[in-house]
């Protein structure tokens, strides 16, 4: 990968940029023997409002991954609208109540996309979608994009590329997305999350080691304590103090996995005053004590533990 600088930005020159815009479709004469197969891959730029795809009107059994290079598109997922700007991508499993299109306030939308089918494709992308959401920012995590970009360049230069080689690259994309889903500081699209709740979550993530009260969280959100607690539970599925403990346990798991600090030191560093209480909370979230987690007993320690509702 080559980089150069322009206006204080680092611009990535990706493999697909050595090619031209085009699209490639694949038809298979044999039954669906491969658990993941490439159906379409393309680099496109649309400027017409006629560009609109509905997830209930185009068959089913496949998945679309589409990454925005420039301009802006929109994804409607149920009743939620997401703005698709540079560095963001969407995942949609078809059929579903989704629609993506060029909005009236956008002159163009340029993107890379892949369409895949097969049991593994649907299962893995569905799981990734649950963890990361339908729209994901890749601004700080370009690895999955690099896989798609290189695959496009490979297909562009050799449309007869072996189908097994293509499937192997698609698995690389899946694993890259899984790795992202279990990484640190994942950036999710949160258009449906009120700014007040985002502000409270930002406070929790940056000051989790401090003795934060509900009043502190409500003040950050700019809401009364009662209204804040109701909204927070509604939007996150957890009460504010549960969410704070979740963040503390995730950070503790990271320290246990990547440092040799004692359990007592990890407890202190992640906001637990007493080690015994830390062990009790950690076990309730993870299903193992901190030492059992560190040693790989009961639960395998991973690069980063993510706790979801």
TrEMBL record:
Keywords: DNA-binding, Transcription, Transcription regulation. Residues 198-296 form the HTH araC/xylS-type domain. Coiled coil: none annotated. This is Helix-turn-helix domain-containing protein. Pfam families: HTH_18. One of its GO terms (molecular function) is sequence-specific DNA binding.
């Amino acid at each position: 990968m080559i980089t150069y600088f322009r206006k204080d930005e680092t611009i990535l020159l990706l493999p697909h940029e050595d090619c031209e815009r085009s699209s490639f479709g694949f038809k298979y004469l044999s039954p669906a023997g491969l658990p993941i197969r490439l159906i379409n891959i393309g680099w496109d730029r649309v400027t017409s409002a006629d560009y609109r795809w509905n997830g209930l009107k185009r068959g089913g059994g496949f998945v679309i991954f589409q990454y925005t290079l420039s301009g802006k598109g929109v994804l409607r997922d149920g009743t939620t609208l997401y703005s698709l700007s540079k560095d963001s991508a969407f995942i949609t499993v078809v059929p579903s109540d989704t629609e993506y299109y060029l909005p009236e306030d956008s002159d163009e939308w340029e993107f890379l996309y892949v369409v895949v089918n097969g049991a593994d494709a649907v299962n893995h992308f569905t799981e990734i979608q649950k963890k990361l959401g339908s729209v994901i920012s890749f601004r700080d995590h370009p690895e999955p994009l690099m896989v798609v970009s290189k695959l496009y360049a490979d297909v562009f230069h050799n449309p007869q590329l072996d189908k097994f080689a293509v499937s192997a690259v698609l698995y690389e994309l899946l694993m890259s997305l899984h790795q992202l889903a279990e990484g640190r500081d994942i950036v999710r699209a949160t258009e449906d999350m009120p700014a007040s709740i985002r502000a409270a979550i930002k406070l929790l993530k940056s000051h989790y080691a401090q003795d934060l009260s509900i009043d502190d969280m409500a003040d950050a959100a700019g809401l009364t304590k009662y209204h804040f607690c109701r909204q927070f539970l509604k939007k996150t599925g957890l009460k504010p103090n549960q969410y704070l403990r979740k963040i503390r346990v995730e950070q503790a798991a990271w320290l246990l996995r990547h440092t040799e600090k004692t359990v007592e030191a990890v407890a202190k560093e992640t906001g637990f005053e007493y080690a015994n209480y830390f062990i009790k909370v950690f076990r309730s979230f993870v299903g193992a004590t901190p030492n059992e987690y560190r040693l790989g007993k009961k639960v395998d320690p991973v690069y980063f533990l993510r706790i979801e509702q």
